Amino acid sequence: MDFITPIKTFKEITMSKLTKDCIREMILEAKATKGMTWEQIGAKLGRSATGAAGICYGYGKVEADEADTIISLFGLPAEAKRLLMEAPHRKPLQPWPPTDPFVYRFYEAVMLYSPAWKDVSHELFGDGIISAIDCYFDVEKVIDDQGVARAKFTFQGKWLKYTKF
Hints:
Cyanate Lyase, Chain: A, domain 2; single chain; 165 residues; 434 Repressor (Amino-terminal Domain); 2 domains; two-stranded antiparallel ribbon; alpha+beta
């Protein structure tokens, strides 16, 4: 039976074609298997839960020490370090427009309320835009006066004034 080529294992195939998408899937699988929360992962990385999720989804570049922590925490191959440290291609994981109901609600809120948000922002800051590079995101669980759980989202971005030319 020497003429039969052995079938490669999933790990062998993955290692030969390791991509950022593969790394994200490995991280999410390990997170679920270990029962970890983004809050716990953020604490290990010295980041917020949202910041940790963002880099694990591939939306941010990490430093060498963070890459080492991620590799150790999730049991990733050493080859993942180089990819984790590369500047990311920030492409949506969702189709456009979004089909996931949770994501779609954000899309809907932006489409409905952004003209009002823009108007108020321009009154406060002048003509400009919010930076999507120099910004901070966070999600909190809050309880209202009636005891109902609510989601509180923070998007804090540097205000960039338009320049005259």
